[in-house]
Write a structure and sequence with these properties.
The protein is α+β, with helices and mostly antiparallel strands. The protein has a single domain (7-193), classed as Sandwich (Jelly Rolls), CATH 2.60.120.590. The chain is 16% helix and 39% strand. The chain has helices spanning 25-38, 83-96, 169-172; strands at 7-8, 15-19, 45-48, 51-54, 58-63, 69-71, 74-76, 102-108, 115-118, 131-137, 140-146, 152-157, 161-166, 173-177, 187-193. A hairpin with a 2-residue loop joins β6 (69-71) and β7.
């Protein structure tokens, strides 16, 4: 495998490694278009502050049979893997040291689509989940916040990038994709996971 440029973020109680250009521009453009048209996107309602509201993004869940995922009052049953998802998965697994069995896809249609503060710490993800996050499309700011100290870390996730979150990260840090008033185009993010 070719050497991939990476940056390990200086975050205590975490292991976070960023690969700014795992996929080149031509690959990233093609994958963005394929994902837009082949994924079965949906918009579920989620429970927040005692109310049911539409998620501020589109989502989809693919994976091995029986690997369902629950969050924010939603239970997602996996759709069968598509070749494009298996190709992306095969690119990141050697860097992750993990074989993923599922992926959550998020389609951010513009700056008003977002993801609020959360950790990927659901019981079905295990004790120290390894999350492999791939981004295509518009750059978006990604925020981390330490649970105890409230220290924040910011990172811009670029087109064709890969972010690996492992070790105790999800126990000690939350993350978000905030809304922005800037006029930005669409972005698709894939977070590969292991459902136990």
């Amino acid at each position: 495998m070719l050497f991939q440029e990476s940056i390990e973020l200086p975050m205590p109680d975490a292991r976070v490694v960023y690969f700014p250009a795992l996929f080149n521009a031509a690959e990233s453009n093609a994958l963005l278009e394929e994902l837009k048209t082949t994924i079965a996107w949906r918009q579920d309602d989620i429970r927040m502050f005692g109310k049911w509201i539409p998620q501020p993004r589109l989502t989809a869940w693919y994976g091995d049979a029986g690997k369902s995922y629950k969050y924010s009052g939603i239970t997602m049953q996996p759709m069968p893997w598509l070749p494009v998802l298996l190709d992306i998965k095969a690119r990141i697994e050697p860097l992750s040291g993990t074989v993923y069995n599922s992926v959550l896809l998020n389609y951010y249609r513009g700056g008003s689509d977002s993801m609020s503060w959360h950790a990927d710490d659901e019981p079905e993800l295990g004790a120290n989940p390894v999350i492999g996050s791939v981004s295509f499309g518009a750059e978006r700011m990604f925020h981390f916040r330490h649970n105890a100290t409230q220290v924040k870390q910011h990172l811009v996730l670029g087109h064709g990038s890969f972010l690996l979150m492992a070790g105790p990260t999800q126990h000690h840090w939350q993350h978000q994709i905030p809304k922005t008033q800037r006029a930005i185009s669409e972005r698709i993010n894939l977070t590969f996971r292991v459902i136990i």
